[in-house]
Specification:
252 residues, mainly alpha
């Protein structure tokens, strides 16, 4: 029997990403609305009562709500997508093809990251204007944005594969989103949180994503960003490995 030679990994990744983007081309407007309204509403509410607390608090509010925008559009949508693919048997179909499972995971994450960029840009621009926080964009921002989105999207994929239904997956993902933003110094400076919340926040990738975004959006970039990068990469590797373990696959 003649065996089919797999395509190069770059071709597989491109085709899978294009396929995912095509599947969601009809709903980008609703994704833009849901990915923008919640972070902006939270930002404006917190900013209204925190203007007198200084630029540090306002910078935490801006960066924290950008993390929320990334989580709503990446973690939530990736979670729903994997729950749907599992329920419909699509993962079983993909498993019969000469595809690498981690490329399917990465393609799904990349497609939703691209779809979330408009929400992120709107939240950043309107948020900085409302809070009157000056932006000092650093070139490393181009690395920070995908690196901040990857571990959270991986968590979403893991929830989608582990939940018993799409509804359950959506509920758990929403709970994780609010918990990750609420605990630790994500939206609120560490000096205004109890010690136990700061310690708990060290276990969340949202804490390191918010730190990296603050440095590359508002400045200055310090040695702390090395720790943020290392932790985000480690979270990404761990979540992608766990998602791969949950997926039954014919090839690697």
């Amino acid at each position: 029997m003649r065996t089919i030679k797999p395509q190069p990994w770059s071709s597989q990744l491109f085709d899978l990403t294009l396929m995912q983007l095509t599947n969601w081309r009809w709903s980008w407007r609703s994704m833009l609305i849901t990915g923008t309204l919640a972070p902006l509403a939270s930002l404006m509410a917190l900013g209204t009562f925190s203007r007198h607390l200084g630029i540090e608090t306002l910078s935490y509010i801006l960066a924290g709500n950008l993390v929320m925008a990334l989580m709503f559009e990446n973690q939530g949508k990736v979670c729903s997508n994997f729950a749907f693919m599992q329920a419909m048997g699509m993962l079983n179909y993909f498993a019969t093809l000469p595809l690498r499972r981690h490329l399917l995971i990465l393609a799904t994450v990349l497609s939703f990251l691209m779809l979330s960029l408009p929400s992120l840009a709107i939240t950043l621009l309107l948020g900085s204007l409302f809070l009157q926080v000056p932006l000092h964009l650093h070139p490393l921002l181009l690395v920070v944005i995908p690196l901040a989105a990857l571990p959270m999207a991986g968590i979403g994929a893991l929830i989608g594969l582990s939940a018993r239904s799409a509804e359950e997956a959506g509920s758990i993902s929403l709970l994780v989103t609010f918990a990750a933003v609420a605990i630790g110094p994500v939206v609120i400076p560490p000096t205004r949180l109890p010690v136990w919340m700061n310690q708990l926040g060290n276990l969340s990738p949202a804490t390191y994503a918010a730190s990296a975004l603050r440095q590359t959006l508002l400045g200055p970039v310090t040695e702390r960003i090395i720790l943020d990068f290392c932790v985000l990469i480690a979270f990404t590797a761990l979540t992608f490995w766990l998602v791969g373990r949950k997926m039954e696959w014919r090839v690697g």
